[in-house]
Amino acid sequence: MSSNLREYNRIYKEVNDIYRDAASKFGLSNSVFDILYTICEVGEGCLQKDVCDATFIPKQTVNSAIRKLEQEGYLTLSNGKGHSKHILLTESGHTLLKETIFPIVEAENEAFTELSFEECNLLLKLHSKYTTALREKFSKL
């Protein structure tokens, strides 16, 4: 294993740990955090499929976490086309989003301001290039 790969893996795991700690700080599981974050990002009324596509979390895990949020009164589901369900936040769901996800997004945006415009673009370009190459190499396994 190259030293570059080791360092990349360390950074990747550290970033995941930062998000896991943030979710835990707000009393959220990783999957609930990811669902709320996606609703914030994609918009209310998104489909469960949208959450799966955005988070890469298995459908069953997303469904279980959404059911939990529904039982806790944070969201409701409304029928879409076929079997699809639209995710709608309740008043307490909007409050939860404002108290948990909004501060995270604000911190992320502030962290990005530590990078120049060029550094930001380079970070995104290189990470995307690596992800594409990794997907291609893994598809051949």
TrEMBL record:
GO terms for molecular function: DNA binding; DNA-binding transcription factor activity. Keywords: DNA-binding, Transcription, Transcription regulation. It comes from the Bacteria. Pfam families: MarR_2. Residues 21-120 form the HTH marR-type domain. This is MarR family transcriptional regulator. It comes from Anaerobutyricum hallii.
